[in-house]
Amino acid sequence: MGRPVAYNVNEKKLENDISIANMPEGHQGEGFFATSLNKVVGLARKNSIWPLPFATSCCGIEFMATMGSHYDLARFGSERVGFSPRQCDLLMVMGTIAKKMGPVVKQVYLQMAEPRWVIAVGACACSGGIFDTYSVLQGIDQVVPVDVYVPGCPPRPEAIIDGVMRIQDLIGKESLRRRNGDRYKALLEGYAIQ
Amino acid sequence: MSLTNDRIKERLVEKFGEQVSAFSEPYGMLTFEAPKELNLKVLNFLYDDEELKFRFLTDLQAVHYPDDKGRELAVVYHLHNLVDNVRIRFKVFTDIKTPDVYTATGLFSGANWMERETYDFFGVNFVGHPNLKRILNVDEMDYFPMRKEYPLEDQTRIDKDDEMFGRG
Amino acid sequence: MTEHEHIRLPEGSIEKTTTTLNLGPTHPATHGVFQNILELDGERIVSAEQTVGYIHRAFEKLAERRPLYQVTPLTDRLNYCSSPINNMGWHITCEKLLGIKTPKRVDYLRVIIMELARISDHLICNSIVGVDTGAYTGFLYVMQYRELIYEIYEEICGSRLTTNIGRIGGFERNFNDIAFQKLDKFLAEYPAVLKEFINLFERNRIFMERTQGTGAISADRALNYSFTGPNLRAAGVDYDVRVHTPYSSYEDFQFNVPVGTTGDNFDRWQVRNDEMWESLSIIEQAYRKVKEFKGADAEVFHADVPEYYLPEKEDVYTKMEALIWHFKIIMGEIDIPVGEVYNCVEGANGEVGFYLISDGGRTPYRLHFRRPCFIYYQAYEEMTKGSMMSDAIITLSSLNVIAGEMDA
To answer: Which residues of A are less than 8 Å from C302 in CB distance?
Structure first.
């Protein structure tokens, strides 16, 4: 009963030993490189994200596996995970958020300094998951604005890393004036955040 | 002589007579019930008696039977005799309008949170409990969610299509 | 802030003799969300009030809506560090209700999976106790070997963490050669790692001074609080469900039940380590027994109960009864007998009990999970009264409170 599960024996060959990230566009000369400020700032921010792991349940254990040496998250710049919201950029909400916990998530989000991003890891944080009950918040986007959603129950560490890489894309391309603009203010108004 | 279900039943009937009733043995575990006024007396008897020695409270919770008028809430105690390795189940039934049951925290400290959980879900009022307030649900909740009349889902959701879930 | 109105400041705090500290739900040292409101006199704890329920997911009410198979994913998420034990416990409860007897090979395979889950859970607990005393290396080193356990689960059921492994009556597929190869690799590499992990801590003076004598509980108080599992065994009581009421053929195995003396943090750490060695020995014995089944016997991976276990697809397409059973199982219309059953298994934290009342319908009438974490966390105040703040943190992590199991 059931197909036998096969182990992947076809290894993909590495093209290069070391792959180098692309430089942003700009004007280069002898001893200088000129580009626009937001590209440089984006490059710096995206490669040194300090996450705040808000791990409530099972996805938290997969996060521990992601931080472990097999699926190292530290190579993406997240070597130092902080537990203080004042010192972190990325709020990683992993696990089910119950209605009792909703105000706590909101308070932690309010204590973070701009620029801040939120990633909802796992089906429960995205939309309540399998728990369609009276006590579970059906998705953290009811209380905080979310940038990236990573589905899965729990998502594999590769999926969590993929989510972090999408956040890196978002950070790299973000305009420096976004946080002061009307659209962002309207977004926060929608969540009753001043 | 090892402790068998029949021997336990004998001792209970000897001590309490007609008040313990409804003896049955589903899947090998002796189950009986007593009126709710006697729950502490029965628990103390099972604890103190040198032959019975049921000194470990495995579990305490409630069941709601909305159709059994006058006996809607059943508080179920699972007790365990660790020395002779015997388990029993003891039930007390109470009316839903006056769900007062004496607390077992004097005898078993572990019953503290178990009774709070039962209160939180079913509304059973444990008389004499040191700190009977909600434990798992939000404090502002004004109903007892595990009772059969209340729904499972959050009623404030607007984006779910009940037709698709077979509830439309 | 209105959302914390339920916290009332005690008298001592208002008169400034004690400080109120909120060891809040978001905290690095807890693997899970629960709150302690501590009253501190300097560094010493005067009282602790616990608030739980920050991850209450209404499992018991959810289970009343789901047919028996659909309850298995809920049991996964109880103690998610060792979810196969919960799954197997639930399946054994269903088998008790339905009167199904599983063949020996299935029992031995179940034992292998449950003991792997136990090792997985104890590894997290012990390495996190290490992290809380400041030693991060042990944790990283040991997580690598949990990946090997995850690979074994993946080979059998497809999932790493919340496994939903097994079915009522057995397993969904036979363990193939690759699963056994991975098990061989684990058994070959892991003992050296465990030995090295223990060497890092066992005679380490800092670790010993931080954990010995702190967070102690006596056997009488532990029994009164209905402790079970490694926390109770560290206090000196040798109660282990695998020995007392053997399930899944545990009576065929030779193993010791490690017991501590004082019930302090160091004893709990030692008991968990010794249990990991015992689990390794049980896995080796079970593996040898499984290898003894030859020929057709080696193909047995489930009990022959077509009413509750999906029949083979070839039969579904050709035979009428198989088609009916397939339809009934998938639609959740299987016939459950009326009755009530309480069954328990030895989870990584203690006795995980399932109290199932069925009224003959398609879903349970009432399903209650006896969750060890919920029950023993009550004793935290008693264990930490009078101790220092940092000892309280270590006590919290050595108790191994998993919030998912506590709040259910």
So the answer is: 1
| Contact: B29, C368; criterion CB under 8 Å | no
Q: Would you call B6 exposed, middle or buried from its count of C-beta atoms within 10 A (0-12, 13-18, 19+)?
A: exposed
User: Is residue C122 helix, strand or coil?
Assistant: helix
Summarised one tens digit per residue, pLDDT across range C45-60 is 888 888 888 889 989 9
Owner of token pair 């049921």: B54
Cβ contacts (< 8 Å) between C58 and chain A: which residues?
Answer: 131, 133-136
Nearest to residue B83, comparing CAs of B165, B164, B3?
A: B3
* Biggest alpha carbon–alpha carbon distance for chain B: 64
CA gap A172, A38 in Å, rounded:
8
Rounded distance, CA C175 to CA C162, Å?
19
Burial per residue of A71-98, b for 16 or more beta-carbon CB atoms within 10 angstroms, e otherwise: bebeebbbeebbeebeebbbbbbbbbbb
Question: What would you measure as the largest C-alpha separation in chain A, in angstroms?
Answer: 68
Give the residues of chain C that fall short of pLDDT 50. Answer: 1-2
Which chains would you list as touching B if contact means 3+ CB atom pairs under 8 Å? A, C
- What was the pLDDT predicted at A2? 46
Residues of B in Cβ contact (< 8 Å) with C339 = 26-27
Inter-chain contact A133–B138, Cβ cutoff 8 Å?
no
Name every residue whose Cβ is closer than 8 Å to that of residue B145 and which is 6 or more positions away in sequence: A134, A135, B121, B137, C58, C61
Q: Which residue of A has its CA nearest to B153?
A: A133
Q: Do C173 and A1 count as a contact with CB atoms less than 8 A apart? A: yes
State the ipTM, two decimals.
0.91
pLDDT number for residue A4: 53
Give the nearest partner residue to C172 out of A2, A95, A103, using CB atoms: A2
Arithmetic mean of pLDDT, B61-71: 89
Residues of A in contact with C31 (CB under 8 A): 55, 60-61
Coil, helix or strand at residue B31:
strand
Question: Residue C163 corresponds to which tokens in the numbers above?
Answer: 């496994």
Examine residue B151 and say whether the peptide bond preceding it is cis (omega within 30 degrees of 0): no
